[in-house]
Amino acid sequence: MKNIYETLTGLNYFSNLVAIIKKSGLEELLAQKKLTFLAPNNAAFGNASAYEPDDPAFKRYLIGNLDDILTDQDSASETLRRHLVPEILSFNELKKRPYVTPLFGEDLPIVSNNGDILIGGASIEIPDVNCTNGLIQVINWVYVPTIFNKAEA
């Protein structure tokens, strides 16, 4: 079994995320710290309108433009830390919680719906990818810093 960083770099559908990780300088954190990574797949970096929920409460969690995120190390690091939860939480454990608190940014609300869950507006596409230092929850959303939001909150 590989750590979170090794697992992500070995999967083609995380190439955008791996670019952010490399720009952020947080490779070591993802290799060692015990985490749940709410990891956006490549499709999550696409058109915001494809993923924007109707609920205005989620307007602040919009898809980020990859070029904006990669402008500097601080932007990449801040974006990445919005996806890292400093505890290991399985899909079933997440379903029982009202929110998760990432390493950076606001709490992400969790909404259960017919056995599925939304975390800050993101659907879990692939649950519970096991790694030596935690779990990856593959999501279809990118939590971005406020300055990158494409719509008003």
Summary, kept brief:
The protein is an alpha+beta fold and 153 residues long. Helices cover 26% and strands 24% of the residues.
Task: Walk me through the topology.
Blueprint: H1 4-9, H2 15-24, H3 27-32, E1 35-40, H4 66-69, H5 73-81, E2 84-85, H6 91-95, E3 99-100, E4 108-113, E5 116-119, E6 122-131, E7 134-139
Parallel strand pairs: 1-7
Antiparallel strand pairs: 1-2, 3-4, 4-5, 5-6, 6-7
Helix pairs in contact: 2-5
Explain what you see.
A 7-stranded mixed sheet has the order 2-1-7-6-5-4-3. It is globular and about 40 Å long. The chain has a single domain (4-148), classed as FAS1 domain (Roll). It contains 6 helices and 7 strands. With 153 residues, it is of the alpha+beta class.
